[in-house]
Amino acid sequence: MSSYKLTYFAIASLGEPIRFLLSYGGIDYEDNRLPKEDWPALKPKTPLGQLPILEVDGKTLYQSNAIVRSLAHKLNLFGDTTFEHFEVNAHIETIGDLKNILFNWTWHETPEDKLAKEAGIREKSAFLLGKFEAAVKENRGYFVGGKLSAADILFAGLNPVFSFILGNDFLADYPNLKNLVEKVNALPGIKEHIANRPKTLEDLRIQLGWNMARCRTTTVDSPKGWENTMTSYKLIYIAISGFAGPIRYLLSYVDIDFEDKRITQEAWPALKPLMPLEQVPVLKIDGKTLYQSNAIPHFLVKKFNLPCSNDFEVFKVDATLETIGDSRPNGRTRLGVSLPRLVDKDGRVEKYCDLRHELCSLFSYLKFGATLLGIMSSYKLTYFGIAGLAEPIRYLLSYGGIDFEDNRITQEAWPALKPQMPLEQVPVLEIDGKIFYQSNAIARFLAKKFNILGSNDLEAFDVDATLETIGDLRQLLAKWYWYSEPAQKAATEAETKKKAAFYLGKLDAWVKKNDGYFVAGKLSAADIVFAGFHLIFAFLVGKDYLADYPNLKGVVEKVEALPAIKAYIAKRPVTEY
After folding, report:
1. Which of 332, 473, 521, 533 makes an SS bond possible with 503, Cβ 3.0 to 4.6 Å?
2. CA of 109: how far to CAs of 102, 103, 176, 511, in Å?
């Protein structure tokens, strides 16, 4: 049995969502609440000189959001489809935005600046809380998909510190968020944790009604949990093998009688508007419509317990399905992949299907199918005419061989476009009409699609934690450079550069330890994201900022030498940052 030890201060704050997740999962853990006077001795022993950290069988996990994601994956709290996974991630990022706004204002501003910025903080907090309220209302009481996810537990876990900062009635104007917190707090495990947790300064001030500021301010049913009474299966696709072939194989393998409706080219225009994304295949199960050709096999594999006796086998099957899926939009054949092995009903191990023939058939019809149905995914990235936050996304899309529209908008065009964005900010990535937002969430979504998030749970955590650390460096530098008054900028320059050197030193050491890459001696999303930020880091810190960090310099050079990224760099517009 694994041993868990959470170390944080004797408050709720960043530690509480992790405690909520551990409690929800029924995981026994040591809740090490560190006295303030013990912190100076422990600080140099932590990966980044900060808390919380979670030790799992001696392995130290760090970066609170990365810990949350790691536990959420373990507890299956990331949704049932790729898009739900993205939405959970995007909400985690946006809740983090609210947390960062409030934390920076509360603890890192002078009294004068705090007073001067109060109105803006109220407005921004109300904007984000309003977005959360609308999402929870739309999704039947939860952030995503009408069911519990990591985003719900994260928000409820941060409720004590939000109440501490904003006032204990900060959710008075947000009834759906208030109900969400109540539902999470009533979950078995979490309810017991709340009843037994020590009282903190946050609790005392909330009970006294104290506050630092007053800040008032068509989801498709998930297939998860459907009962085994389902009897009617109808698969709709055009009269070719194409994207429906693997689905037909899966249904046939488990002896499911299904209607294989193969529509003609003439029938498609009338049927197209009735499809969820105006595309096929779709699979109807007792009238419920499943869509997205990658999501349907994932659902069927899970429903019929086809693969896997352990988490690593689950990962391998999942990664293989993703790799096959990656091959299709790009038209690049990866027929040499090792296909999953499954266990049949009699316990005999046998190869699932040799999909080589099926894939060859798919690629033969790919051009025809794309022309007929418009099923080749379209990607449109919208950002300003600079590298900025979008460059890592452009690098990832290029690496994945994705043709995308690089929509670089002008400052003059932004005011009219801003209200149309989910959070009134860019970048956003549109994929077949779906809008993906939050730059970190987009990067993780693409990284998962291209299988560069690590080969096991620990590697995935290390990649995630490195992405969080790169994000900390970027936010540190951006806040100093763009958001400080000139006098404050000059006064904080030395401290900012010292902190930046600390992060760069840690990152350089990780690359040295891992044979030239951030994680496990191989390319990952962390390498591409860091290289994608190279231009803006060089602008903020100086062109020679990597002179003392040869391993990081090597990462940038290797990433920018990758054929697809090299080709993108050669043709991109020249910008200062």
Report:
1. 473
2. 11, 10, 32, 34
For residue 24, the model assigns a pLDDT of 97
pLDDT of residue 554: 97
| Alpha helix ranges (H) inside 483-573 | 486-513, 525-532, 534-541, 550-560, 563-571
The domains of the chain are located at: 4-207, 233-373, 377-577
Neighbours of 264 (CB within 10 A): 9
pLDDT band at 313 (very low <50, low <70, confident <90, very high): low
Q: Is 520 helix (H, G, I), strand (E, B) or coil?
A: coil
Residue 219 is encoded by which pair of tokens? 């989801």
Rounded Cα distance between 363 and 370, Å, is 11
Residue for token pair 């040799």:
354
Q: What are 29's two structure tokens? A: 């853990």
Whether the predicted pLDDT of 362 surpasses 60: no
Instruction: Look at residues 161, 86, 165, 88 and name the one whose alpha carbon lies nearest to residue 122.
Output: 165
Cβ 528 vs Cβ 566: under 8 Å: no
Quickly list H helices, 139-207. Answer: 150-166, 175-185, 190-196, 201-207
CATH number of the domain located at residue range(s) 4-207 in this protein: 1.20.1050.130
The C-alpha R_g of the chain, in whole angstroms, comes to 25
How far apart CA 557 and CA 530 sit, in angstroms, is 11
CB atoms closer than 10 angstroms to residue 27: 17
Per-residue pLDDT tens for 316-343?
555 555 555 555 544 333 333 333 333 3
Which pLDDT band holds residue 256 (cuts at 50, 70, 90)?
Answer: confident
Asked if the model's pLDDT at residue 530 lies above 90, the reply is yes
Eight-state DSSP code of residue 7: E
Would you state the pLDDT for residue 255?
A: 67
Q: Phi and psi for 215 in degrees, rounded to 5?
A: -125, 80
Residue 517 has pLDDT above 70, yes or no: yes
Nearby residues of 423 by Cβ (< 8 Å), 6 or more positions away: 94, 97, 128, 131, 437, 438
Closest listed residue to residue 147, CA positions, set 84, 230, 73: 84
- pTM for the predicted model, two decimal places: 0.69
pLDDT by residue (tens digit) across 540-562?
A: 999 999 999 999 999 999 999 99
Q: What fold characterizes domain 377-577?
A: Glutathione S-transferase Yfyf (Class Pi); Chain A, domain 2 (1.20.1050)
pLDDT tens, residue by residue, 46-80: 999 999 999 999 999 999 999 999 999 999 999 99
**Are the beta carbons of 193 and 23 closer than 8 angstroms?**
yes
Fold match flag (4-207 vs 233-373): no
Contact criterion met (CB below 8 Å) for 393 and 442 = yes
Q: Does the pLDDT at position 364 exceed 80?
A: no
Of 400, 125, 365, the closest CA to residue 245 belongs to 365
CA distance linking residue 33 with residue 30, whole number of Å:
9
The DSSP 8-state label assigned to residue 70 in this structure reads: H
Nearest to 234 by CA among 280, 301, 276, 286: 286
Third-level CATH fold of 233-373? Glutaredoxin (3.40.30)
Between vectors from CA 433 to CA 430 and to CA 436, what angle results, nearest 5°? Answer: 35
The pLDDT confidence band at residue 242, using thresholds 50, 70 and 90, is confident
Exposure string over 412-445, b if 16+ CB within 10 A, otherwise e: eeeeeeeeeeebeebbbbbbeeeebbbbbbbbbb
